[in-house]
Specification:
The structure holds 2 protein chains of 2 kinds. Chain A is α/β, with parallel strands linked by helices. Chain A is 43% helix and 7% strand. Chain A contains 27 helices and 15 strands. In chain A, α13 packs across α15. The chains are: A alpha/beta, B mainly beta. At the A-B interface, α2, α3, β1 and α4 of A face β2, β5, β6, α2 and β10 of B. Chain B: This is Fertilization-independent endosperm protein.
């Protein structure tokens, strides 16, 4: 890349260039030289600064360290003193020897026989510096060595972590693509013999980011030499990056500069946003989808990992229903309890088709809008109640901040203020003390009832008036406004006597403009007024209402509500209790639900209704399959390195395998079919059965149907589960059950004529106690604590699930150490118990074993169970046949007849295992 | 090797000796025929600042440096090998097969510690994986720690609490022990642990929770035991059987550094910085910069390099004086390089060579003030070097 400048920049800059009016082709040369010198000087500057900064840091560190070491020195001095004070120094033999040696050295006490120095006479060339105490007789054995008694060493092992269930390997545990250096044990010295095929693999990822220093140079160079291709080119050369990157970087740098200047003027607002409530539920659920394992029902499942494919069952469950609570109010804010009280005034207005709905409106408004009262002042109310608004807002805040059930406080404020001025005092307390507020809340409820009785006629007229507008909501909205205004202003009038007059005026003003004048202290004389003006308000208010409602329902709450509808159906009690506890009350939810319904109905007609984005989401939310963003769990440092794979066939990787291993089982992955699985079902293609985790309906032909065993207790091959090397699954099999506990907690529904299933031991972890000890054969061994009968399940062989490729890599390492804990699990995975596993990994190999290993499908996962081949007595060591492939087995694991030499090629990667210790 | 980006270059020391101080051989002694792997001064108790211990073969020896280059043997301990046993008891007979495995002990490492009463302990470990705690004040074995699954490569003492020792082993774990009560407190291994032998480990000088370990997986890992400190406290008052102590696993280090591309066989804290060496003929000083939010991640800032020619075999360890002013390291050819650690750029104080010192030097030991340097060699010799220029030695010995 020549640094030939493009015509335009060079032309524009030619004036600024000094004495180089040379021929055009030559022009680039001095220019690039100049640029180079600029870059060079900047580089030098950077390097110098680096030196200075290192020096400073070293100096700082030195000071810190100096104080540390002087402290340590003090400690060592103290130790000496405390020793002298505490104990008789004659007990310290080391001290005594020390003194003796000094004594001898200075020629005193030469006779103290058994201690001396055994320094040697130095060779002549250095002897000038050597002053030997000649009085000390040399001699090696003059200090009698003290014998350290024998301690039996442990058989070697690598530190391992106990696992009670298999784990999938995390990416950072991979050995693939990493260089491994071996050294010869007996050579005593480092012997680097990493596998040739791995040599060139260890390539660091190209660094794409720019360092601060590079930024600095880019910026300064361009500042000094101007922005031209020549400059860019030489910069690119300097950093060995391409020109586009440099350009892009420069642009982003200048942008950054600007924004950083701008940001100085911008207030740091909005930083104190409420944490999770402002987030989208989708975002929150995303981590749930990624981290929650739907098969194990735990977060952060180590077996199936995060970011599993989401499988949505084709058969939707009906919404949960609780018949017993059907007709009981769920709490004090239940829409039922409120609506009942509402019924009285509205019952006698038969012209209202939608009685119930209507009746709820006013009261729910009073309860609901309070929560976020501040936001709910509609513009109209704000106009009228301007002077008092700040007061009400602050009072509301006060109340809200004290309790999560904040609605109680404000609500109380409202209603009490209507009833009697003397009660307004309570509102302060209501915010402060929960207990108090609850009691008050009850009173409030009754107050509401009373009030509603009183104002029955008004609400009637209002309700009917509301109907005129075609929307019941309309009636409630003015109510709210009024209440808002009332409460704030009334409160204001109470707490601040000075402002009383003003606020009373406000109250009256508001009342006149509002609709339900009965609520105000003013006589309801102005109601005619109200009806007159109602029409003006009707339209505007309805929109405002929606806007307000959408505002008061945060996106998060709305999404929660949508989820609630999915789960519980339209049951506001359950939704409020389970999902919006502390956020919304039942009535609010109920009302919101109704509005949502209406909105759906009116949506086509009135575009203005679609102000809130929540609803459109609600519409589609059910059908839309959630998109899932992949999200990798961070655990330690994950290095992603390039990997070049070559055949490892010449190696003998030893992997244990279980009985009857003609061909490896297939790893199961749930399919997402929404109809009965056909030919294209991934399970079918993969050759596995569909399981309960699949999306397909239960009628799918590919499903494993479980067994119907009863008396045989699933212990023989007559049980289809047993025959298929599967454990029974109570979700699938018809009769399989086990009892649990001593029965004191109740007995499960017994199926299958009271015969317990005996084929669920892995699932239930009904294993035998295994002890770890020194083997009678070699190294460590596993022993059984209690006697067991034939075919009894002993325990699970757990470990890390690794890919076959990974296993081949690890196998090479393990083979070198002549110790392998690999176990072939299925076509996808190998179990490695080297660093993670359980005690059964120490069970030794024997050609004539007392145990056998079996890969069993347990709830969709393959697991390795170890079973007794015969009766085993307590304390016996456990052995099983690792069943290495004959050509891969180590010499000691080979049966006499199979002592063929290692073959160079392996038929398939189903290797054999070995064990040593 | 990755290109070092601009602005992150380390300062590399020059190999021209500053002659600030000069050393002469004042003694040499042959301890045996077997290689000596470790030598260490006692920095724990000021009474014993001139006492040092060496290990080699099955022998632990305690010496004293006297004036004028004299080295006096104070104590010597020999691990009994199984062949030397006169009578094998009945109980042992049934494990006779195991004895085939039992190799003669070959100690690799030694350190000084003390119990809470202040009695000086020598703690040594080696190929058998058993850590021997010798009460030098009473000349008897105090405890033997069994637990490591393979050889022990290094043991270090917590300077602030000298009852705590930490050991690095071939079994890929680092273990924290309390020599006072004999319990194994913590095991640093597991999911985030070392993937091969651990060769070296060191306590942070001031932050009691921190240790750094390094090994054959080419990484240096920094661990924190802050969360587990209650366990450590508990270990001091443990009266039950040591085996019943609830030993905990620390599976994830707070920092993993890939500073080297080969075995890392020695690391030491220098304040908050770390000195480490591989087989690349240099000691590297770097700063770990951890990220608080994401444990295990962070960046390494390589600050300085101290070249050490002909130091390309593994298991060569360096040592510092009490105040970390200087470090001494031997090389494959029996030469010693003494670096001034805390200056920038680093300066070589002296380069020590002797015509007869040809054998690889496995470890050096610097005395309290750095005026004496000991080296122990592959051929079983111990060399003593003393600073000659009295003026400079006095200036540096001021503390």
């Amino acid at each position: 890349m020549a640094s030939k400048p493009s015509p335009s920049p060079s032309a524009s800059r030619s004036g600024s260039l000094q004495d180089t009016p040379m021929a055009k082709p030559d022009e680039s040369a001095p220019e690039s030289e100049e640029i180079a010198s600029v870059i060079e000087s900047l580089k030098r500057h950077v390097v110098d600064e680096r030196c200075v900064s290192i020096k400073e840091r070293m100096e700082k560190n030195r000071h810190k360290l100096a104080s540390v070491t002087s402290h340590l020195q003090k400690l060592s001095m103290e130790r000496r003193n405390s020793w002298i004070n505490l104990a008789d120094s004659s007990h310290d033999l080391l001290k005594k020897r020390q003194d003796d040696a000094i004594g001898m050295h200075s020629g005193i006490g030469t006779s103290s026989g058994d201690k001396d120095s055994d320094s040697h006479q130095e060779d002549s060339h250095a002897s000038t510096a050597v002053l030997l105490g000649t009085s000390i007789p040399p001699g090696k054995n003059s200090v009698r060595p003290i014998r350290l008694p024998e301690v039996r060493k442990l058989p070697p092992y690598t530190t391992w972590i106990f696992l009670d269930r298999n784990q999938r390997m995390t990416e950072d545990q991979s050995v693939v693509g990493r260089r491994r250096i071996y050294y010869a044990q007996n050579g005593g010295e480092a012997l680097i013999c990493s596998d040739s095929e791995e040599e060139n693999v260890d390539e660091e990822e190209e660094k794409k980011y720019f360092l601060e220093s590079e930024d600095y140079i880019i910026r300064m160079t361009i500042k000094e030499a101007g922005f031209s291709d020549a400059v860019i080119n030489s910069l690119a050369e300097c950093f060995s990056k391409n020109t586009d990157e440099i350009k892009a970087r420069y642009e982003s740098l200048t942008k950054d500069e600007k924004t950083s200047v701008d940001s100085l003027h911008v207030d740091s607002e909005a930083s104190s946003l409420n944490s999770f409530l402002d987030k989208d539920l989708e975002a929150a659920l995303d981590s749930f989808d990624n981290l929650f394992c739907r098969r194990c029902l735990v977060f952060d499942c180590r077996l199936h990992g995060c970011s599993q494919d989401l499988v949505f069952p084709a058969e939707k469950r009906p919404p949960l229903n609780h018949p017993d609570v059907e007709n009981l109010p769920c709490g004090e804010h239940c829409y039922r309890s409120v609506s009942k009280s509402e019924k009285m005034p509205t019952e006698d207005s038969p012209e209202l088709g939608d009685t119930k709905d209507n009746s709820v409106q006013p009261s729910s408004g009073s309860a609901g809008t309070r929560t976020t009262a501040r936001k709910k002042h509609t513009p109209c109310a704000r106009k009228k109640a301007r002077p008092s608004q700040s007061e009400s807002a602050s009072s509301n805040i006060k109340n809200m901040s004290d309790s999560s059930d904040s609605e109680i406080g404000p609500q109380h404020t409202t209603s009490t203020s209507h009833l009697s001025p003397s009660k307004t005092k309570l509102c302060g307390k209501g915010g402060v003390s929960q207990r108090n507020s609850k009691r008050v809340a009850e009173r409030v409820l009754s107050c509401i009832k009373k009030r509603q009785k009183l104002i029955g006629s008004e609400s009637d007229s209002v309700a009917s008036g509301g109907l005129l507008g075609g929307d019941a909501k309309l009636s409630s909205s003015p109510h709210r406004e009024n209440e808002d205004a009332n409460s704030s202003s009334q409160k204001n009038s109470k707490s601040r006597s000075r402002k009383t007059e003003l606020s009373v005026q406000n109250v009256q003003g508001v009342a006149r403009d509002g609709i339900s004048s009965a609520m105000v202290a003013d006589p309801p004389g102005s109601s005619s007024d109200v009806t007159l003006r109602k029409d003006d308000y009707a339209d505007g208010n309805s929109r405002k209402m929606e806007l307000n409602d959408n505002l008061s329902w945060k996106a998060f709450e709305k999404s929660l509500f949508e989820k609630g509808v999915e789960i519980f159906g339209k049951n506001s009690c359950l939704i409020a209790r389970n999902l919006l506890n502390g956020l919304k009350t039942c009535v609010e939810v109920f009302q919101f639900m109704r509005q949502a319904d209406k909105r759906l109905a009116y949506q086509a007609g009135d575009a203005a209704n679609c102000l809130g984005d929540g609803y459109s989401k609600f519409d589609q939310g059910n059908n839309e399959v959630r998109r899932r963003s992949r999200f990798l769990r961070r655990r330690g440092r994950v290095r992603r390195l390039k990997y070049s794979w070559k055949s490892t066939a010449y190696h003998s990787i030893r992997k244990r395998i279980s009985e009857r291993k003609d061909q490896p089982c297939r790893q199961y992955n749930p399919c997402n079919c929404q109809t009965a699985c056909g030919k294209e079902c991934p399970c079918h293609l993969n050759g596995t059965c569909c399981e309960k985790y699949c999306g397909c309906p239960k009628t799918c032909k590919n499903r494993f149907r479980g067994c119907h065993c009863a008396k045989s207790q699933c212990r023989s091959r007559q049980c289809p589960c047993f025959a298929a090397d599967r454990e029974c699954d109570p979700d699938v099999c018809r009769n399989c059950w086990v009892s649990c506990g001593d029965g004191s907690l109740g007995v499960p529904n017994q199926r299958g004529d009271n015969y317990e299933c005996r084929n669920m031991k892995l699932l239930l972890k009904q294993q035998q106690r295994v002890l770890l000890g020194k083997s009678d054969v070699s190294g460590w061994g596993a022993f059984l604590k209690k006697s067991v009968g034939k075919h009894e399940y002993l325990g699970e062989y757990t470990g890390e699930l690794i890919s076959h490729r990974e296993a081949d890599k690890r196998g090479k390492i393990y083979d070198r150490e002549n110790s392998s804990f690999l176990f072939n699990l299925n076509d996808q995975f190998v179990l490695d118990a080297y660093r993670k596993g359980d005690k059964l990994k120490f069970a030794n190999h024997s050609p004539d074993p007392n145990c056998y290993a079996k890969v069993i499908m347990v709830a969709g996962d393959h697991r390795v169970g170890i079973f007794a081949k015969e009766r085993i007595n307590s304390g016996e060591e456990l052995f099983y046949d690792y069943r290495y492939e004959p050509d891969r087995a180590p010499a000691w694991a080979r049966k006499p007849e199979a002592s063929g030499s290692k073959k160079e090629e392996a038929s398939h990667p189903g290797g054999r295992a070995k064990k040593l210790a | 090797m990755a290109r070092i980006p601009l602005g992150c270059e380390p300062v590399i020391g020059s190999l021209v000796p500053s002659k600030k101080r000069d050393y002469r051989v004042t003694n040499r002694l042959q301890e045996g025929k077997r290689p000596l792997y470790a030598v260490v001064f006692n920095f724990i108790d000021s009474r014993y600042f001139n006492v040092f211990a060496t290990v080699g073969g099955n022998r632990v020896t305690v010496y004293q440096c006297l004036e004028g280059g004299v080295i006096a043997v104070l104590q010597s301990y020999v691990d009994e090998d199984c062949c030397g046993l006169d009578g094998i008891s009945e109980a042992l007979l049934e494990f006779s097969i195991c004895f085939v495995d039992q190799k003669d002990e070959s100690f690799y490492t030694v350190t000084w510690a003390c119990n809470r009463d202040g009695s000086p302990f020598v703690v040594a470990g080696g190929i058998n994986g058993i850590i021997r705690v010798i009460d030098a004040g009473h000349e008897k074995i105090d405890k033997s720690f069994v637990g490591h699954g393979d050889s022990v490569n290094e043991i270090r003492t917590q300077p602030l609490k000298p009852s705590l020792v930490v050991s690095a082993s071939k079994d890929e774990s680092v273990r924290l022990w309390n020599v006072h009560t004999g319990v194994c407190i913590l095991i640093f291994a597991g999911a985030g642990g070392h993937r091969n032998e651990v060769l070296s480990v060191d306590f942070h000088p001031s932050d009691m929770y921190r240790i750094a370990s390094c090994g054959m997986d080419n990484t240096v890992k920094i661990w924190s035991m802050k969360e587990f400190w209650p366990s450590v406290e508990k270990s001091f008052t443990w009266t039950d059987l040591p085996s019943k102590f609830p030993t905990k696993y620390v599976q994830f280090p707070v920092f993993i550094a890939s500073v080297h591309s080969n075995y890392v066989d020695c690391n030491r804290w220098l304040g908050d910085f770390v000195l480490s060496k591989s087989v690349d003929n240099e000691i590297v000083l770097w700063e770990p910069r951890t990220k608080d939010q994401s444990p295990g991640e962070g960046t390494v800032d390589i600050l300085q390099k101290y070249p050490v020619p002909e130091c390309d075999i593994w298991f060569i360890k360096f040592s510092c004086d009490f105040h970390y002013n200087a470090a001494a390291i031997g090389n494959r050819e029996g030469k010693i390089f003494v670096w001034e650690l805390q200056t920038s750029p680093p300066s070589l104080i002296a380069r020590l060579s002797h015509a007869q010192s040809k054998s690889p030097i496995r470890q050096t030991a610097m005395s309290f003030d750095g005026s004496t340097i000991l080296s122990c060699c592959e051929d079983g010799t111990i060399w003593r070097w003393d600073a000659v220029s009295s003026s400079s030695s006095s200036s540096s010995s001021q503390v």
